[in-house]
Amino acid sequence: MRGLIILLGALALMGSALAEQNAFDPEADFDAFWTLYDERYALFEVKGVDWDKVYDVYRPQVSENTTRAELFSVFESVTDLLNDVHVTVRDTEAGRFARSGGKSLGTGSFDVGTFSMELIESAYAQGGLTVLAGGTMRYGMLRGGIGYLKVDSFKYPTTSEAAADEIARAFADAPAVIVDVRQNGGGSDAVARMLAARFADERRLVMTSEERLPGEDVLGGPQPWHVGPVPGALRVPIFVLVNDRTISAAENFAIMMRAFPHVTILGETTAGAMADTFPVALGEGWVFGVPSNVLRDANGRSWEGIGVVPNLFVANTAAEVAAGRDRQLETALDFAETAGPRLLP
């Protein structure tokens, strides 16, 4: 594969650059960037992108006279082809940042007005919400004794486990539970699996992971992710709220949860960025985000670039939220009170 030839050339050029105090070398930087994704990015097949053709189109646009700003623009154009919000380009020298396939997620406000925690606390929660896990979880009761859990992120694995146990105990007598992962930017898949175990009915295959190892042209075999119930797991009807700001590990949590027959996913299609990602620094001040695996649901389907489709699609509007109504939460409450079944598999 041409990647090896380009890699050797890029390393030679980068070695010369290092010898010259890391002088900016746009051609070497582009080749190193292309090779990095050629060797490590896991989702070319899922995305339908021919990376060799990308090189043929964009490499001629870079010369020894290319400026740093121009090279950043080329990197941005190339990564946009992947339509993957986990793919990022950061120029630490100039303070520039770009995110593939999701500029609004990278540069706009995370809260776009269609969700309000303050509204939930003031208009729906009865007796307030208890904050746990370093501020990443809060829980309480809604009308009819229905449990409500808001997860802001899947971080802090140590404190989150103790918090999840406390929440499960608090909901032991609840007829149904609403788990809200809207406006959740992700975190650790291990935390997502840990929390899903508090709602599992039995041990089930929930996802698989296929890793792209350095230098390998094919993915490794699928590694199964199983989730089973822990003592005190809740088997009542569970409703998981999602929206387009449900991202990464939060999406994987939704995928895991939909493997259980007593769980309904409700809201809007999620962001569509599930893979695990690592940062790599190259050249003089460039840092790239590289997704390294393909995650699939229990049926073998990847939702990358698509997003998790809810069982029941319900959208909030900014006007409704400003007027004091959370339509998604209210719909989940209505279903919870009637123990309505999932509408789709």
TrEMBL record:
Keyword terms: Signal
Alphabetical GO biological process terms: proteolysis
Which GO molecular function terms does the record list?
A: serine-type peptidase activity
Q: Which InterPro entries match?
A: ClpP/crotonase-like_dom_sf, Tail-specific_protease, Tricorn_C1
Q: Does the keyword Signal apply?
A: yes
Q: Does the keyword Lyase apply?
A: no
Q: Hey, what's the signal peptide range on this chain?
A: 1-19
Please report the stretch or stretches of sequence annotated as the Tail specific protease domain. 112-315
What Pfam families does UniProt report for this protein, alphabetically?
A: Peptidase_S41 (PF03572), Tricorn_C1 (PF14684)
Q: Which SMART domains match?
A: TSPc
Q: What is this protein called?
A: S41 family peptidase
Organism equals: Parvularcula maris
